[in-house]
Write a structure and sequence with these properties.
The complex is a heterodimer of chains A (205) and B (202).
Chain A (H helix, E strand, L loop, with lengths): L1 H17 L14 H17 L6 E3 L2 H9 L17 H36 L7 H4 L14 H4 L8 H7 L2 H4 L4 H28 L1
Chain B lengths: L6 H16 L5 H21 L2 H18 L9 H27 L3 H6 L1 E2 L2 E2 L8 E3 H14 L2 H11 L5 H8 L3 H27 L1
Antiparallel strand pairs in B: 1-2
Helix pairs in contact in B: 1-2, 2-3, 2-4, 3-4, 6-9, 7-9, 8-9
Chain lengths: 205, 202
């Protein structure tokens, strides 16, 4: 009696699993011959109630498919996670990632040098660097001042607040565009001078 | 083709099973085969118009689907995807068989000798074929004989395609009771099916 009840309970669970409900954790086991018979019958009942049965029904169809399935390799495309990979493969992947970072860093450096070079080339007409070197706050190195950026053209400061202070009240609401452009140009020249000095200083070292 | 009354619910249940198969649970695929075997055979039969050939096409479609399940991303329902595979397999079969039939014409008498009641059978795996019209009648008769609560439960599940949770809400009973009622309904109908088989044997 106890055994029979257990069997019924198991079948009830299989019935629910057949409906995709209460699927047990882990992998499903292969059904016994008796369970297969029940599953085939339940499949027939469902299909008949939905009028899905073909004129002739092959009762061994699912068994034949599953027999072939069990001999078939599934083409899983899921990518393995890093933890699941062998140590050597993990190292290889990390090395590739590291190389990518290095390549990006090199590309960024080349781009920076190109920009600096271009700016330096365009700053050819600015006054010589030796002039502000005397007032450098950081000591001169081989006649060049790393402080030239801070000291050159001190009379002009790109500061809109100062600009506003030096103008009439009427001009405050309408800034002088030409003056602003000149200030920007001088500021750019000062930056270029500083960069050129830094590049020459680096080259001298 | 007649579609399931509530295919979306079946799809969500399919998705869970498909995921299991993709994770290597081979036996979970059996649930999908059992769920769609008759539909797939019927689709194949509409193309090839021969139950035995339809069985072969359906079998091949299920194997193809299983092999490719790793690449199934769930953008459509599993059944829609399987349907496409079945139609393509049937078309390929028809293309091949039109060439094959021409070659077989020479040996037509030998070919006919293998034909039993219009159905070709294999010696290795003999098909256990069943006339579905009579079976369907027995199942519907059994459904009418079921107690109301069992009939409602199995109808909501099999015809309406509802989940156990939804059936529990509709019937205002715990899910465990729904599970039990559906199982008992199946048992009852199975007994009537067995009586049909016994009557035939006698």
């Amino acid at each position: 009696m106890q055994n029979n009840q257990t069997e019924t309970e198991i079948l009830e669970k299989i019935s629910a699993a057949f409906d995709g409900e209460n699927l047990p954790a882990g992998r499903l086991r292969a059904p016994s011959a008796e369970e297969k018979q029940h599953l085939a019958n339940w499949s027939l009942i469902g299909s008949a109630l939905r009028h899905e049965l073909p004129p002739k029904v092959d009762l061994s169809f699912a068994d034949k498919v599953m027999a072939q399935v069990e001999r078939t390799e599934i083409d899983l495309v899921e990518q393995p996670t890093l933890e699941k990979l062998p140590v050597m493969r993990r190292f290889s992947l990390l090395r590739k990632a590291g190389m990518a970072v290095v390549q990006i860093a090199v590309a960024a450096s080349v781009a920076a040098v190109t920009v600096v070079g271009w700016q330096t080339y365009n700053a050819g007409s600015v006054p010589a660097l030796s002039e502000p070197a005397a007032s450098a706050t950081i000591g001169p190195v081989s006649g060049l001042s790393l402080a030239s950026y801070q000291n050159d053209n001190r009379d002009i400061v790109l500061n809109l607040n100062n600009l506003a202070q030096n103008q009439n009240a009427a001009d405050r609401t309408k800034p002088n565009a030409e003056m602003l452009r000149q200030m920007q140009q001088k500021e750019l020249e000062r930056i270029n001078n500083y960069v050129r000095g830094y590049v020459l200083h680096s080259a001298a070292q | 083709m007649k579609m399931h009354a509530d295919n979306e619910i079946a799809s969500s249940s399919d998705a869970e099973i498909v995921k299991r198969v993709q994770q290597g649970d081979v036996q979970a695929y059996n649930i999908l085969v059992l769920r769609y075997q008759h539909k797939v055979c019927e689709i194949a039969n509409k193309f090839v118009n021969n139950p035995a050939d339809a069985g072969d096409v359906a079998q091949e479609a299920f194997i193809k689907a299983y092999r490719a399940l790793g690449s199934f991303r769930g953008e459509s329902s599993f059944y829609t995807w399987l349907y496409r595979i079945t139609v393509n397999t049937a078309k390929t079969f028809l293309e091949g068989s039109s060439k094959h039939r021409y070659a077989l014409d020479v040996d037509a008498p030998e070919f006919e000798s293998q034909d039993t009641q219009g159905v070709l059978t294999s010696q290795d795996t003999p098909d256990r074929l069943l006339e579905s019209a009579e079976l369907e009648q027995v199942i519907f008769d059994a459904l009418q004989q079921l107690p109301e609560e069992l009939r409602q439960a199995i109808t909501l599940r099999e015809i309406e395609g509802m989940s156990y949770e939804d059936i529990a809400l509709v019937m205002k009973t715990p899910i465990g009771t729904v599970r039990s009622r559906i199982f008992r309904a199946r048992q009852f109908i199975e007994e009537r099916m067995a009586q049909l088989a016994t009557g035939k044997q006698a």
